[in-house]
Amino acid sequence: MAQKPYSTQNEDARLALILSAINSKPPGVSLLVILTLVSGVTELLVAVIFIVVASVLDSWLGILFGVGISRLAFWVLSVVSIVFFFYTTTSFFLAYGLWNGRGWAWSWALVSSIIGLVSSLIAFGVGIGVVGLASNAVSIYYLTRTDVKVFFGKVALPKFTDIPSRPPPSLDRFCLHCGGRLNGNEVYCVSCGSEL
Residue 160 carries which DSSP code? Predict the structure, then answer.
């Protein structure tokens, strides 16, 4: 069997790598999912804490300062807690999309990381935000790697029509006894005379 030229072997290896990347989850995606779930659980806990604090403050402020102030504090903290519940839901939804390799989840995570990086740069200017700066920069780097983009369907794969086709198999018929070529629908081989 003839060996393929070196360039064809490289193309085959590259295509095999791309096709295997489609079917396998890069290990960092699992870490992104875990971090997103931890973020969602943290947001859920903050929302519950705000609801509890709102209820307690409603009672105490009502006793100390009257009903007006206590109602205002209750509603402000309730709205903040609803916002955290919303973030919890979106975090869990994003984790689902990341785990399943959805393209929208990649876009969402990349945009969120860019916004987080800009926010961290601003916070870094006032002396805080080092962790956010590092984590968002690493996330952006990871999300823009080729294997990760392939997993999320963000890289155009080569079309199979771009791969050179092999010549079609021969439709010629040959005698089973002597191997001679048959021209048409003969009943007997013209070379050896055997019945076909």
Answer: G
C-alpha Rg value of the chain to the nearest Å: 33
Burial zone of 112 (CB within 10 Å; 0-12 exposed, 13-18 middle, 19+ buried): middle
Burial of residue 173 (CB within 10 Å: 0-12, 13-18, 19+) is middle
Q: Indicate whether this model's pTM tops 0.70.
A: no
User: Which candidate, 94, 140, 82, 146, places its Cα nearest to that of 115?
Assistant: 140
Which residues, in sequence order, are bridge partners of residue 173? 182
Strands 181-182 and 173-174, bridge-based pairing: antiparallel
CB 166 within 8 A of CB 8: no
Give me the pLDDT at residue 107, please: 94
**Does residue 146 carry a pLDDT above 60?**
yes
Maximum separation of any 2 CA atoms in the chain, in Å? 116
